[in-house]
Design a protein that fits this description.
- With 149 residues, this protein is of the alpha+beta class.
- It has a single domain (5-130), classed as 3-Layer(aba) Sandwich (Aminopeptidase).
- 32% of the residues lie in helices and 28% in strands.
- The protein has 4 helices and 5 strands, in the order E-H-H-E-E-E-H-E-H.
- It has helices spanning 16-28, 37-45, 93-108, 122-130, and strands spanning 5-9, 49-56, 59-71, 74-84, 112-115.
- The chain has a 5-stranded mixed β-sheet, sandwiched between helices.
- The longest helix has 16 residues, at 93-108.
Length: 149
Amino acid sequence: MNSGISVFELKDTVERYVNDINRLLAQLSSTPHAVSSGTLAALVASDNSHLFLATVDGKVAGMLTLCHYLAPTGRKMWIEDVVVDEAVRGRSVGRTLVQRVIEYAGELGPGTLMLTSRPSREAANALYRSCGFVFKETNNYTMSIPKKN
């Protein structure tokens, strides 16, 4: 473990983390979706989503979510919403988070661990390759499902 960096899975809804998570999400996307206490409670209660937070000297400095499910072709695991606070980038916070989650994924059992990353995020892409991820040429499609009235 790197000096001053700690990683843990958030297992209980702790109101004090809502602002930290929203601060990080604002650095991840130009159109962030704010997390409410209710959303955080649902995420933490889910058996298929695991929110990991990284702290540096006790202050929340990064996060990522591991999601997993069983499909006919085997267990699929996705790393989502990886973000490290701009103030501590370059201090191995992202590497520590990713390595901890790779270890956790192994505890879930065999499967395929996947993630997506925009090509413009050069440092993040280099990190993922250095952690053992292999680029897979594929098409990535998305669709927003609207909320029903």
